[in-house]
Amino acid sequence: xxxxxxxxxxxxxxxxxxxxxxxxxxxxxxxxxxxxxxxxxxxxxxxxxxxxxxxxxxxxxxxxxxxxxxxxxxxxxxxxxxxxxxxxxxxxxxxxxxxxxxxxxxxxxxxxxxxxxxxxxxxxxxxxxxxxxxxxxxxxxxxxxxxxxxxxxxxxxxxxxxxxxxxxxxxxxxxxxxxxxxxxxxxxxxxxxxxxxxxxxxxxxxxxxxxxxxxxxxxxxxxxxxxxxxxxxxxxxxxxxxxxxxxxxxxxxxxxxxxxxxxxxxxxxxxxxxxxxxxxxxxxxxxxxxxxxxxxxxxxxxxxxxxxxxxxxxxxxxxxxxxxxxxxxxxxxxxxxxxxxxxxxxxxxxxxxxxxxxxxxxxxxxxxxxxxxxxxxxxxxxxxxxxxxxxxxxxxxxxxxxxxxxxxxxxxxxxxxxxxxxxxxxxxxxxxxxxxxxxxxxxxxxxxxxxxxxxxxxxxxxxxxxxxxxxxxxxxxxxxxxxxxxxxxxxxxxxxxxxxxxxxxxxxxxxxxxxxxxxxxxxxxxxxxxxxxxxxxxxxxxxxxxxxxxxxxxxxxxxxxxxxxxxxxxxxxxxxxxxxxxxxxxxxxxxxxxxxxxxxxxxxxxxxxxxxxxxxxxxxxxxxxxxxxxxxxxxxxxxxxxxxxxxxxxxxxxxxxxxxxxxxxxxxxxxxxxxxxxxxxxxxxxxxxxxxxxxxxxxxxxxxxxxxxxxxxxxxxxxxxxxxxxxxxxxxx
Length: 733
Ligand code: ADP
Ligand code: G6P
Known about the structure:
Blueprint: E1 4-10, E2 13-18, E3 21-26, H1 30-41, E4 45-49, H2 62-70, E5 74-76, H3 81-100, H4 111-131, E6 137-141, H5 148-155, E7 160-164, H6 172-175, H7 181-188, E8 193-196, H8 199-212, E9 216-218, E10 221-224, E11 227-233, H9 240-252, H10 258-269, E12 274-281, H11 288-301, E13 309-316, H12 323-343, E14 351-355, H13 360-369, E15 372-375, H14 384-392, E16 399-403, E17 416-418, H15 423-435, H16 438-454, H17 457-473, E18 481-482, H18 485-497, E19 501-506, H19 525-535, E20 540-545, H20 550-557, E21 563-566, E22 571-574, E23 581-582, H21 591-603, E24 609-612, E25 616-620, H22 626-644, E26 649-653, E27 657-662, H23 667-675, E28 682-687, H24 693-698, E29 704-708, E30 717-719, H25 722-730
Parallel strand pairs: 1-4, 1-6, 4-5, 6-7, 7-8, 8-11, 12-13, 12-15, 13-14, 15-16, 16-17, 18-30, 19-20, 19-28, 20-21, 28-29, 29-30
Antiparallel strand pairs: 2-3, 9-10, 10-11, 21-22, 22-23, 24-25, 25-27, 26-27
Helix pairs in contact: 3-4, 4-5, 9-13, 9-14, 10-13, 11-12, 11-15, 21-22
This protein binds adenosine-5'-diphosphate and 6-O-phosphono-alpha-D-glucopyranose.
6-O-phosphono-alpha-D-glucopyranose is lined by residues 10, 29-32, 142, 166-167, 318-319.
């Protein structure tokens, strides 16, 4: 039976060693708590880190560690103290976490940590690969493992891989500051489906992919190499029933927890006290300091509530080896001390502060006993606590005050939504919550509860996995077969068996990778060696067929014996020393109409460039911001379109280039003309863009036509990139 392999840094349980005994405690944090129920139900396995370093596990304890994990269907990746330092405390939590949460000033760029991150990601990927059986699918989670999808895909291209990011994906302007930004994106793009909590994170990611990997987007599908990668948002839910049922049980419970007893005792002494709850990991993204200051401001602004309102603040220790977390701990201690010192009365302290993890039952006690939940993260991927609070309000009373910066705010808009930096607004929201009539509380909570119940964690996981299934079964829209394995062998064999062959090779994007400026994509030694090798065999007719002008090709290939066809089929030269022969009669009198328009567009589109050829003008936008470039190219097309009919012109759309040229001149016509006096028994044509499609269409049916890259094509075959073109051509020597 096939299974799902969940991969995340944290396993659902964290192990500790206490007096030579292995202790397992449930992991805290949205990812582990959220996925626990998904894992518990299936027959899958969960791969992650146990929380112990190699140095901590002495050989006599190792079997107990294995047993504790095995019981929970978990496998652990073994990490040394040094690896945990560089990978977890280092690159994950000193570089990625702050950067992705817009704390750019906290983000450290340390090359050694990056190297460790790569190595540890490879360890995770290796363990995944070891555990894959036929038809399994792999679901990788979160920012600690951004490179794993690509590492697994490389070894197991047949396996379906999903990736979900549990934290925000920042805007391109922030993400671009990361020195290893391309590698990170490439790592993620190993997945077939990439999921985010919100549409905003999704569009930030797509914008970075478009700008940094220079990929084409088709709505939320990215054409990457020859694969289709789908990007979508799936807001994570919670195990609703677990919280809801526990809350029902809570109301019936006879034995009370310590926390509940303290709350009850306090209510007994001061019957009119209202409790405001806040729960998070102690993290600078959670806005804990802002929350305390806002509460202080509330007590100052509404002194009638002194002695009547208490903030119950629960913070779980987190990542305490990272300096900012230590500083935050000190800052919070001081702030709590200051506010309590300033306002405390004999029977009342304004803030109850717990710095520890709590068992599930105690969390439920708090969710049930506090009429207000105050969650003020300055950035938060989702914030499950908000949903847990709503699910635990059995009688639907209670008010949720929630930061607009939490992903959950997108779904819970009946809550009182606040800006976490606006202390006055938070103070007013507390006041509003305190006086809100019960019927209004219930009205809003029923709507939110219904949503939290319907879109629970199971539904979330299910929708993700169904969508993953769908992406993989949907192949790119083409019948073109990849040139590899048997297909490649058969092409090479037909070539070798033939007595006379013609090779039509496009230049840019086929024989030379694109450069920012067209003039920089000149041929290198490796290309000359390959072309000379092919040309040396008298059975071969080698034709370079390009949209470039003849001057450029003369400069680059003028001394070579191959045939050159330039400007999309306007000129032909049959080897060094021969004259250029004009294949079509055209003129360029229309330049004076079109050129000023192109010039105007170039002036207002930074990075664009005009290339004047003998009988055509090209407008290149490869160096323009991709989104702006596409928009301007469309605008330019619409501006020129009405003018070209009178001059028998056409607009050719190449790869990041628009070219205006005389109609009827194209590579299809030129290549068939070339074949007129030849009777080859093998024809091969390779090209990467739209202009090459003429050639693929017009050449005889028996020709081997190969599209370079993943765009739509009528070619029979497809090959990845320039590097793979070179590899194939070498087999023709
Ligand atoms: P994050 O993922 O950033 O930690 P979330 O709010 O999404 O934030 O998830 C936090 C999870 O950790 C919730 O499921 C919550 O119940 C749990 N949790 C938070 N604080 C505590 C605590 N003091 N003790 C136990 N569990 C906690
Ligand atoms: C967030 C992250 C999780 C992480 C959790 C707890 O929810 O998205 O990946 O596990 O915080 O942090 P920790 O560093 O203790 O794993």
